[in-house]
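Notebook, bench 3.
Goal today: get a predicted structure for Coenzyme Q-binding protein COQ10 START domain-containing protein from Minutocellus polymorphus so we can plan the truncation constructs. The sequence was checked against the plasmid map this morning, with no discrepancies at the termini. Length recorded as 367 residues. Pasting the sequence as submitted so the record is complete.
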Amino acid sequence: MKPLSRGRGFAAGTTDSGPLLPPVARLMLSLLLLLVILPDASLILASDPSVPHAHKGKQDPFSPGDPNVSLDSKALSILSSGQPFQTTIHVPGSTSGRGLVVQEVHAPPDAVWDRILDFNHYADMVPRTFECKNYDEQKHKATKRDPLEQTIYTKFKVGLPLIPKMSFYVKHLYYPTLSSLTWTLDYSKKSDFDDSVGYWYVVPHPDRLGWSRVYYSIAVSMFDWVPKTVVNFMSTKALTDATGWVKKFSEEKWKSDPRRTAIEALGEGNGGRANNSKSGRRGLFSRIGGKNKDSARSNVDADGSPSLLDDTCDSFIGTYTPQSVDVNKPSKLLTVKATCIRIGLIMTVSSLLVYNISLCLDRYAQN
């Protein structure tokens, strides 16, 4: 995948601006329309695990591995400030691009993967996710030709406040040696999404010890009855929301990890930076387990002694054991927050309707 352009603003799609309604107003009115025309969600939302999906895939699936995204000084400045960087990547065989987000996370890759792969607890972490459960898992013996190690099948239920929730079934493919997770719909089951494909790529930060650089991309297509404004909103928000929750919960978990103090102490002894290519540390896009031309010097410090930094860090990071998440905590705060959001949404839609009616009356009076 090759980058088409750089920049902070990627939109999954565009809509034609009307003469009276700004984009936010169109989104609100689209949601209101859904409330009116979908009093019984079962009339249209008919996901069914007992029947196959209508097709075997319309979106081109992602390939695992390095996305080959070039990060210039502007991108690195955005990332170092803690913000996500958005760009567009080329899809082989297509003239269009897909949005991709890059985020730096203060946690090593194994801690990040622990959060990404914890699908059974997504409802506690991921915005607009109301249900998420694995229904099948398969282990594979990875080979050089086929590095796939695990297939995970997961049911999701997602949505926005005040509109019917959508259920869909996902097939995840996990490639640890390629630092990647890709997914498509499970086409053996009928989903409320027309199609969905996505991609995670997580590597050690090239300069900051105990940090990761996370790449995420997704493509979603909905059925024709869903307003395009809602599709664009959900697709665009999905990019930054995904890296946002991964950053939050990975860093929270890393704060309580007993390895952190030792690794940060080692980092301070190295100026707060991971070793560069001369010391044998992996670069951003290096193949896992690969060696560079200076590998013979990778375990030797400037004074000729063995490098404790490399050995100790590799030892720490290689012995990480995922911890369980307590899902029995009360969620009263989340309920109150959701109620406030719904009330605010209704008030906003009402205000916009009154405002646009007044504009129409003014134009009528002028004519």
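Helices lie at 23-37, 73-80, 109-116, 228-255, 259-268, 308-318, 332-366. The two ends are 54 Å apart (CA to CA).
Flagging this for group meeting.
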